[in-house]
Amino acid sequence: MSGHHDLGGTQADAPVPRGQHAILPWEMRVDALMQLLSDPKRPGGALISVDELRRGIESLSPDEYRLLGYYERWLQSLIAVMAEKGVIERAALERRVAEVERAHEQEHARRGER
Amino acid sequence: MTPRFNPGQRVRVLDKVTVGHVRTPRYIRGKRGVVERICGEFRKPEELAYGRYDGEREPLYRVRFAQREVWPDYAGAPEDTLDVEIYEHWLEKSEDKR
């Protein structure tokens, strides 16, 4: 018995795509966030280890795990571990995300794109 | 920590049921291989995963497995092998000549 992420040797639902794809700017930012937070040289020491990132990813529900992309899983794990350690507050993050979404919608409305 | 195993020694991966983060994939548990090299000493992923950054370091081994040992229905060449890096606490001595 093992986690639902541990897929080695199991049958894939569909052929595994082998092509490369562009890495999007937000994905690079998630990667950079992980590099910064896991840097032992940062003031106060590392706030997360690679294994903590993995634990967060492996703790996603099977559905979330299946539906989220690679860096989306990283981001969800970073949020969970940082919230667990009291570095960020989930409610504060959600408020900020809502603000950004509102600002984005207003911007679109002003440009008449919606 | 003095390594318990040396290159060339036969080992078996423990077939443990686990909860939480581990670095030993399911498909290799219970399989027998040969220590290819000692990779150095590292802290346990099981502890690092829960924020314990100061645990004891233990040897990590690169273990070589015959593909036919890993995948019973493997259709490739019999000399094909697979290397997996495995922490010492996941290994035991194997006498079995497989």
Topology at a glance:
The complex is a heterodimer of chains A (114) and B (98).
Chain A: H1 25-37, H2 50-58, H3 62-67, H4 70-84, H5 90-110
Helix pairs in contact in A: 1-4, 2-4
Chain B: E1 10-13, E2 32-43, H1 45-48, E3 57-66, H2 67-70, E4 81-87, E5 91-93
Antiparallel strand pairs in B: 1-2, 1-5, 2-3, 3-4
Molecular structure report:
The complex is a heterodimer of chains A (114) and B (98). In chain A, 56% of the residues lie in helices and 0% in strands. With 114 residues, chain A is mainly α. Chain A has a domain at 25-88: Orthogonal Bundle (Cyclin A, domain 1), CATH 1.10.472. In chain A, helix 1 runs parallel beside helix 4 (70-84). The radius of gyration of chain A is 17 Å and the shape is globular. The relative contact order of chain A is 0.10. The mean pLDDT of chain A is 93. By secondary structure, chain B is mainly beta. Chain B has a single domain (10-93), classed as SH3 type barrels (Roll). Chain B has two helices and five strands. A five-stranded antiparallel sheet of chain B has the order 4-3-2-1-5. The longest helix of chain B has 4 residues, at 45-48. Chain B is globular, with a radius of gyration of 14 Å. The relative contact order of chain B is 0.31. Chains A and B meet through helix 2 of A and helix 1 of B.
Question: What composes the largest sheet of chain A?
Answer: none
Shape of chain A: globular
Q: Tell me the series of helices and strands of chain A, N- to C-terminal.
A: HHHHH
SS-based structural class of chain A?
mainly alpha
Distance between the termini of chain A: 49 Å
Ranges of chain A where pLDDT stays below 50 over 5 or more residues in a row are none
Q: Compute the CA-based radius of gyration of chain B.
A: 14 Å
Name the CATH class of chain B.
Answer: Mainly Beta
Oligomer: heterodimer
What percentage of the residues of chain A does DSSP assign to strands (E)? under 5%
CATH architecture name of chain B: Roll
Overall structural class of chain B, as computed from helix and strand content, comes to: mainly beta
Number of helices of chain B: 2
CATH secondary-structure class of one domain in chain A: Mainly Alpha
CATH structural architecture of one domain in chain A: Orthogonal Bundle
- Using only CA atoms, what is the Rg of chain A? 17 Å
